[in-house]
Design brief:
heterodimer; A: 247 residues; mainly alpha; 77% helix; globular; B: four-stranded antiparallel beta sheet; 26% strand
């Protein structure tokens, strides 16, 4: 019997990721449409009703719409998915498998964050062609996207696990998503406290990165470490809650 | 005496609501046995399995596997026990073949072996033709069969099955019972909860009957028969006038038979079976009988009798 079994961690991780991708294979159409159409629609609407908007304001609208897209995928959709798994008790299936729950959380959050990418791309193009907002995309954006995907997805998992039912999970997920959006509206200025505020609730860290060089080493370091701690902390918290046995 | 592989030691479970699901369960099983946990709804069967697999923590007592105490979420427990719950597994987004093979891989089975075992199960459960279909698109029975296959694909020493044949058609049930029966030869310990006592009997080595969270009987099916009292079942198929017959048989043998259509069933003490049957046949009733069946009681009949007896104070006092 032992010969049949071998502790193949990487293989299990690969399978867990494939299982989450299977969800993508099944549901990508509605997920991508919802996470792309609404934020892109807001950008279009504001472009039409406020054609004289300042460039800085347009910049904020584009970034806010991107945050919205990530939040819909990570917070709203994942909270509903987790609530559905909890309600059907299918989550127990994962709990009795000899797998790493932290890898499970990571694979869920990463895959769900992918649902936002078409929306982010669409909003970026919209901004460029409609509002002449050119975002300074850098390689540093990739880890930020991933970390924010983990952070927002972990929030979604927590909401899904703690909400009493699937309907309320969706409602709470939407409220949290709005909180994330409003959290990003605090003016950044140069104050460290404000920068941390930006990181903690939202993906507005995206906005910080192009200006990293102007932040200075200390502030930039604090922001980067803050982002990692924020995403890591939420990841661990979501893992703990998903592992927690019923009483 | 066989060495205990799995033991429940005074295990109790009380939910937050204050309701006791299990009280003082003490049981012990060697490896390579198929154990049936039977009982009415709400008897605490599923709770017992959920504590075994680490989904619930006992309020009191402990469960030991190979002399190690089981605690929720422990990796070694997850590696040693596979669990089929009553509800669907998180496999609905996968194709049938993927669902089974991935389940093996997630339990550390080597890829080639996982592939072989998957093919074997697809063949044995007649699932080969639907291997590329999504589990979410299958019927309830087919989906349940995939769940069973996904659990049986991993060669763990302990298998916990909660209503494995729910929603399955007769052919599927036969395939599943055969497969479960084969686990004994692999020296695996199987704990199964089933309401389908009649079918489960074909594979069970040991039976535990729970009621109100407590063990009211346990032992081999033979032991249970001896404890409950040996009785024989006489089934008479009659030609017509069933109600008249009920009265006639009752008059001859002194008790009313159970009636199902034109079939009358009598449960009599084994020592009196021949005498009762002779009385019926000599009582002028033979001509209207189409067929007679005399049989040992099935586990289901014993179980139903135990359930009836549970209302009597003597048995309740005798519960351990």
């Amino acid at each position: 019997m032992e010969a049949l079994l071998s502790a193949t961690g990487p293989k299990m991780t690969e399978v867990l990721i494939k299982m989450q991708f299977a969800r993508l294979r099944q549901s990508w159409r509605p997920y991508v449409i919802v996470s792309a159409v609404m934020p892109a629609g807001i950008v279009l609407l504001l472009h039409l009703i406020a054609p004289a908007m300042l460039l800085s304001a347009r910049y904020q609208v584009i970034l806010g719409a991107m945050v919205l897209s990530e939040s819909i995928a990570g917070v709203v959709m994942l909270s509903q998915q987790l609530a559905a798994l909890k309600a059907s008790k299918a989550l127990d299936h994962y709990r009795v498998l000899p797998i790493s729950m932290s890898i499970l959380v990571l694979s869920m959050t990463m895959v769900y964050s992918l649902f936002a990418w078409p929306g982010i791309l669409l909003i970026g193009l919209e901004g460029q062609y409609l509002d002449h907002v050119y975002l300074a995309w850098t390689l540093a954006d990739i880890p930020v996207f991933l970390l924010e995907g983990v952070a927002l997805g972990s929030i979604g998992i927590l909401v899904g696990l703690l909400a009493p039912d699937e309907g309320l999970a969706g409602l709470i997920g939407n409220i949290v998503m709005m909180g994330i959006l409003f959290g990003g509206m605090v003016p950044i200025g140069g104050k460290l406290a404000n920068m941390l505020l930006w990181i903690l609730p939202s993906t507005y860290a995206l906005h910080l990165l192009p200006g990293f060089s102007s932040l200075g080493t200390l502030q930039g370091g604090v922001v980067a470490i803050g982002l990692i701690l924020y995403a890591g902390g939420l990841w661990l918290l979501a893992t703990w809650f998903i592992k927690r046995p019923a009483s | 005496m066989e060495q205990s592989f799995l033991t429940f030691n005074q295990v109790s479970k009380q939910y937050r609501t204050g309701q006791w699901a299990n009280r003082g369960i003490t049981l012990s099983f060697p490896a390579g046995q198929i154990v049936g946990i039977l009982g009415p709804n709400g008897a605490g069967k599923t709770t017992l399995l959920r504590m075994l697999v680490g989904l619930l923590k006992p309020t009191a007592g402990d469960i030991r596997l190979s002399d190690r105490v089981i605690h929720p979420g422990q990796r070694w427990v997850q590696e040693m026990i596979t669990y089929l719950p009553q509800h669907p597994l998180a496999l609905s987004d996968l194709k049938v073949e993927e669902a089974i093979r991935y389940s093996a891989l997630l339990r550390g089975v080597q890829p080639e072996v996982a592939r072989e075992r998957t093919e074997e199960l697809l063949r044995d459960f007649d699932l080969s033709s639907m291997r590329s279909r999504l589990v979410s698109q299958l019927s309830g029975g087919e989906s349940r069969l995939v769940s069973v296959a996904s659990v049986l694909v991993a060669p763990t020493p302990v298998v916990a099955l909660d209503e494995p044949t729910n929603e399955l058609d007769p052919l599927m049930r036969k395939q599943v019972w055969e497969r479960i029966g084969n686990l004994r030869s692999e020296n695996r310990l199987v704990l199964l909860v089933s309401h389908n006592v009649l079918e489960a009997e074909t594979v069970l080595d040991y039976v535990v009957i729970l009621a109100e969270g407590q063990v009211v009987r346990s032992g081999s099916p033979q032991t249970i028969r001896d404890e409950v009292g040996r009785f024989t079942t006489i089934v008479l198929s009659v030609k017509a006038h069933v109600q008249e017959w009920v009265a006639k048989v009752a008059g001859v043998v002194g008790e009313r038979p159970e009636v199902d259509g034109a079939v009358l069933t009598l449960h009599v003490a084994q020592s009196e079976a021949v005498q009762r049957l002779t009385t019926i046949l000599r009582g002028g009733l033979a001509e209207e009988i189409e067929s007679i069946q005399v049989s040992e009681p099935s586990l289901e009949e014993m179980y139903l009798r135990i359930r009836d007896q549970l209302h009597t104070p003597d048995l309740q006092r005798g519960a351990n």
